[in-house]
Amino acid sequence: MQRKIIITGDGSKTIQISDWDEQYHSKHGAVQEAYHVFIKKGLQLFNNEHISILEIGFGTGLNALITLMESKKLGLKIDYTGVEAYPVSIEEIAQLNYIEVLDVENFKEHFESMHNTPWEESIAITPDFNLKKQQKDFKEIADDQQYHLIYFDAFGARVQPELWTESVFSGMYTALKANGILVTYAAKGSVRRAMQHVGFQVERLEGPPGKREMLRARKVLY
């Protein structure tokens, strides 16, 4: 498939898959979408804790980077697992401009380490942030009550509907600890219903710029 680097609405870059007319991040702004969905509506619910995060769609590493940055402000120690079936190439990563847009030159080495470290190994990016990248299909995830927070950042249901099914969300529900949270940019009714059918309590929340709503799901045990 043809892939190209594009500039989004906030000046940050992302990767577009031309055949699908689909991007790794919102065309309205990659960085601002990531902050709104995954940090504001997810990570910021935790503070001064040791938590485990699962990212569905490691992609460009943007979510991991901003999570590392924000974890320092929140006093968090994080074990971060990023699952990606088709890793982004180092050549594509080199064309992205997150360090410049975020103005965090002091995190450049950490961001490069996230992409240069080996897959399938837990690596200490900093003393308080461990990263494990796993190359596999999302449907192969079989973790049990391991995560406090899931970033569900797969390609949209329009192009990959098989990733937004009850079967997949059942796996996410199992992977979460009690009272664990899943956040996603998606807001389709079919996605919300699939989450509810496997046991999640689901909230509609204000979406990032350019999107009216998003979803946050919680694993509540009675």
Describe the protein.
The structure is a single chain. Strands 6-7-5-4-8-9-11-10 form an eight-stranded mixed beta sheet, sandwiched between helices. It has one domain (28-218): Vaccinia Virus protein VP39 (Rossmann fold). 28% of the residues lie in helices and 29% in strands. 40% of the residues are buried. The chain is built from seven helices and eleven strands. With 222 residues, it is an alpha/beta fold. α1 (30-40) packs across α2.
Characteristics:
Rossmann fold; alpha/beta; 222 residues; 7 helices; 28% helix; globular; three-stranded antiparallel sheet
Give the helices and strands, then pairings.
Elements (H helix, E strand, L loop, with lengths): L2 E5 L5 E5 L4 E2 L6 H11 L9 E7 L5 H13 L2 E7 L6 H5 L3 H5 L5 H9 L5 E5 L2 E6 L12 E6 L13 H10 E9 L4 H9 L3 E6 L6 E6 L4
Parallel strand pairs: 4-5, 4-8, 5-7, 8-9
Antiparallel strand pairs: 1-2, 2-3, 6-7, 9-11, 10-11
Helix pairs in contact: 1-2
SSE pattern, N- to C-terminal: EEEHEHEHHHEEEHEHEE
- Give the number of helices: 7
Helix content: 25-40%
The total number of structural domains is 1
Summarize the entry for a quick read.
With 222 residues, the chain is an alpha/beta fold. It has a single domain (28-218), classed as Rossmann fold (3-Layer(aba) Sandwich), CATH 3.40.50. It has helices spanning 30-40, 62-74, 90-94, 98-102, 108-116, 166-175, 189-197, and strands at 3-7, 13-17, 22-23, 50-56, 77-83, 122-126, 129-134, 147-152, 176-184, 201-206, 213-218.
